[in-house]
Amino acid sequence: MRLIKCEKITGVVERMVIDANHYLPYDIFNCMKDAADKETTKKPKTILYKILENHKIAKKGTYPLCQDTGIAVVFLEVGNETATDGDIYKAVNKGVEAGYSKGFLRKSMADPLTRENTGTNTPAIIHTKLVKGPHIKISLMTKGAGAENKSALKMLNPSDGIEGIKKFVIETVKKAGASACPPFVIGIGIGGNMETCALLAKKSLMRELDDYNKSDKNAAKLENELFKEINRLNIGPLGFGGDTTALGVKIETKPCHIASLPVAVNIQCHSSRHKTFTI
Amino acid sequence: MEEKIIHIKVPADRSVIEKLKAGDRVLISGSMLTGRDAAHKRLFELIQQGKPLPVEISGQFIYYVGPTPPKPGEIIGSAGPTTSGRMDAYAPALMEKGLLGMIGKGARDEKVKKAMMDFKAVYFAAIGGAGALISKRIVSSEVIAYEDLGPEAIRRIEVKDFPAVVINDIYGNDLYEQGRKLYAVK
Questions:
Q1: Residue A59: which residues within 8 A CB-CB, separation 6 or more?
Q2: Nearest CA in chain B to A178
Q3: Is residue A30 part of a domain?
Q4: What is the CATH number of the domain that holds B153?
Q5: Domain membership flag for residue A121
Q6: A264 and A177 in one domain?
Q7: If both were cysteines, with which of A9, A238, A264, B23 could A91 make a disulfide (CB 3.0 to 4.6 Å apart)?
Q8: Pair (A103, A218) in one structural domain
């Protein structure tokens, strides 16, 4: 059994929260750079270069990438050969609170009914999975509300099929439009039940842009088809029109009830901020 | 196609607004207000009750933003636009009070578009998700109302060459709709 101190987890999360808000992942940056070079007209090209310039300013550490520094979504993979010296959830939340405070990040968590701000950007949204091994893997996403608000879930009928899934995804992306800060990464969960498909959609956004679904060839095919269709919508960078509407489409699937076809579409803005660290 | 850039001084008068067309790129300099969901709700409720507002709205531009806290020695933190659609329920009442400009991101609803034509106000988009870049154009910031709202407080900010694009002009044009059509025929 490997002892991992809660103090260590808190420190790691604190650092991750600050880093995620100042550095875009390389794959996102490079993909936008390629897209900027490929756009054939001035407006979308200019917008993409401005977004890249924003990243260069943010990585100096004074200003976060976006004023919406998000809510902290944390995926924990806890190895069965690890033990912690306290409450792992408290340790994560302590790290989130410290990161948002010390990093001068915006506190955006509020009571849903009174709308009173919790003042600490906690509680974090924490998902835990038990795995084999002596490690704890922490994957963190700081997710802004602009794109999250445009996400949607629908319980389709099995008769709706692949076409029905596509129609729902396209409708959701169209509705997201300029408000959700395109170019997007589109995370899609198909199957399971209501909460599982939403979680699959969120989880898929942690994948690298060039990582297609390797365990389900039908899902990989759908990723590719939807990617092309979404980029034909001409929403373009920040909705001003253009060829780049999606940077990637990620799909995760799970078996579902014979009577159901749950689909969740989680929209991620161009500031796709996430990090992974293994202790 | 070389795009011309229009310089706007704020607060402005209506003659400036009348000249703007959807798609125009502008650089805004001068003094404007900031406000988002919670501040709009409070202003709207005061208007409904016929009570005076804590800030002068007439002739002003309002920027929909909730910045990150400034680091020591800095004027403001990251300060990009938030989604304007959430202010749709409140915006017509503010335009009726003389609000001339709104800056945010994303499409507005039909009621807001109609109010922009009726009351002669313009809606601009700033560069969404470029909060660090935009902060460089803000030269001063002061909370002037609703300090208890934290990032949602109303600020008066001074800006220099703040970049934005006209989305909706007073003639009923909408850049988001035009943009999609333009690329659709390509």
A1: A22, A23
A2: B106
A3: no
A4: 3.20.130.10
A5: yes
A6: yes
A7: A9
A8: no
- Mutant choice from A32, A40, A50, A63 vs B, greatest count of B C-beta within 10 A: A63
> A6: distance to nearest CA of chain B, Å?
28
- Is B179 in contact with A238 (Cβ distance < 8 A)? no
B182's tokens? 């333009």
Annotate B127-151 with b (16+ C-beta within 10 A) or e (fewer).
bbbbbbbbbebbeebeeebbeebbb
CB-based contact A149 B65, cutoff 8 Å = no
Which residues from chain B sit within 8 angstroms of residue A110, using beta carbons? none
Decide if B77 and A67 are in contact by the 8 Å CB cutoff.
yes
Residue finishing a domain among A143, A177, A212: A143
Query: Is the N-terminal amide bond of B54 cis, ω within 30° of 0?
Result: no
Range of the domain at B71: 5-182
Indicate the number of domains in chain B.
1
| Domain that residue A199 falls in | 146-272
Indicate yes or no: pTM above 0.90: yes
| Chain B CB within 8 Å of residue A47 CB | yes
Asked casually if ipTM beats, i.e. exceeds, 0.95, the reply is: no
Q: Do A157 and A258 share a structural domain?
A: yes
- Contact partners, residue A189, CB within 8 Å, separation at least 6: A196, A197, A198, A199, A200, A201, A202, A203, A204, A251, A252, A253, A254, A262, A263, A264, A266
Q: Which residues of B touch A145 (CB under 8 A)?
A: 83
> What confidence category does residue A22 fall into, taking pLDDT thresholds of 50, 70 and 90?
very high
End residue of a domain, out of A127, A143, A159: A143
Write out chain B residues lying below 8 Å of A241, CB-based. Answer: 178-180, 182-183
Q: How far apart are CA B74 and CA A86, in angstroms?
A: 38
A257 in a domain, yes or no? Answer: yes
Give per-residue pLDDT as tens, A143-192: 999 999 999 999 999 999 999 999 999 999 999 999 999 999 999 999 99
> Are A70 and A179 part of one and the same domain?
no
State the total domains in chain A: 2
